[in-house]
Design a protein that fits this description.
Elements lengths: L5 E5 L3 E7 L14 E7 L1 H11 L3 E8 L4 H12 L2 E7 L6 E7 L5 E3 L11 H6 L1 H5 L3 E5 L4 H13 L3 E5 L16 E2 L3 H8 L6 H13 L5 E4 L5 E5 L2 E5 L12 H14 L4 H15 L12 H12 L2
Parallel strand pairs: 1-4, 1-8, 2-6, 4-5, 8-9, 9-10
Antiparallel strand pairs: 2-3, 6-7, 11-12, 12-13
Helix pairs in contact: 1-8, 6-7, 8-9
The structure holds alpha-D-ribofuranose.
Length: about 300
């Protein structure tokens, strides 16, 4: 494989407040939860951490708030060895936070309050231009202003940098603005919301992916949770099966998939191999609690890969 990949994430950083409970309160009801976890999250930050743990050199462009969480988030990037030169505090604004509720099956429900993430502008992308130009891949999500996402896609296209977009949380997209993408990576519910088509099984995911390709996106990769993932390009549609997993908390599994996929691909792996490995990396993240703290190091991942892939 090639030299260390350089991956830049232009995206969100949140603090996750996760409550575990067997059921959730009705309006006006108070109940006891089982346990609580506080951790660093945000789709952008999670994807950056997954890429870093998989072995990439990672650069983050983000905004944090004028509160206790802001400096702590920057310190977390530093502790993990992620370049945070372009992560700045915004005066008078809260950090992004995410109250998360996880049920006994490991399924999550998330409310994101964007806070400072909403202040990441195209001018911030310009400020980070020299660093971004040195990256082999730029990764984006939808927890920052859409204007900034579209601007960064154009930037990546102009400079010939691979660009991966995770359209999460789902919002209506401008097909023209995303036509320059290399990979569009929604999960089932995001694919449904954006395409207007049902995605209840692998077959429907394939139809939805074809429709998204028809809108001019080059490659569509739909993550399907316990059903693995599906990759669609003008060459065809391929379903990549999952690895069996005893899931405790699925929060951040999509982020684990994207950060690891970006790294495997940038290392020079063939796309089907990168997707298969990312399926395992994401699956393994569901066996631990929290988002970033449940992600495997590359060494631990490789040990699991040897066991499960039979390679
Ligand atoms: O994808 C999981 C993430 O979504 C959480 O870390 C939360 O912060 C929200 O951004």
């Amino acid at each position: 494989m090639s030299k260390t990949p350089r991956i830049a994430v232009v995206g969100s950083a949140n603090v996750d407040l996760t409550t575990f409970s067997d059921h959730f309160p009705k309006p006006g009801e108070t109940i006891f939860g089982k346990s609580f976890d506080l951790g660093f999250g945000g789709k952008g930050a999670n994807q950056a951490v997954a890429a870093k743990l998989c072995g990439a050199e990672v650069f983050m462009v983000a905004r944090v708030g004028d509160d206790l969480f802001g400096p702590a988030t920057i310190q977390n990037f530093r502790n993990l060895g992620i370049d945070s030169t372009h992560v700045r505090q915004v005066p008078g604004v809260s950090s992004g936070v995410a109250p998360i509720f996880v049920d006994s099956s490991g399924q999550n429900r998330i409310i994101v309050v964007k806070g400072a993430n909403d202040k990441l502008t195209p001018a911030d992308v310009d400020s980070a231009a020299e660093m971004l130009k040195s990256a082999g891949c730029i990764v984006l999500q939808f927890e920052i202003p859409l204007e900034t996402v579209y601007y960064t896609i154009q930037f990546a296209r102009k400079h010939g940098i691979r660009c991966i977009l995770n359209p999460a949380p789902a919002q209506p997209v401008d097909p023209q603005a995303i036509a320059g993408l290399d990979y569009f990576v929604p999960n089932e519910s995001e694919a449904e919301a954006i395409s207007g088509m049902p995605v209840r099984n692998v077959e429907e995911a394939g139809k939805c992916a074809r429709q998204l390709l028809d809108q001019g996106i080059r490659r569509v990769l739909i993550t399907l949770g316990a059903n693995g993932s599906l990759i669609a390009s003008p060459d065809g549609v391929v379903h990549v099966p999952p690895f069996p997993m005893k899931s405790l908390d699925s929060t951040g599994a999509g982020d684990a998939f994207i950060g690891s996929f970006a790294t495997f691909l940038a290392e020079g792996m063939a796309e089907p191999d990168a997707v298969r490995r990312a399926n395992l990396y994401a699956g393994l993240s569901t066996t631990g609690v929290g988002t970033q703290k449940s992600f495997y190091t590359r060494a631990n991942f490789e040990a699991e890969w040897q066991k499960r892939d039979g390679a």
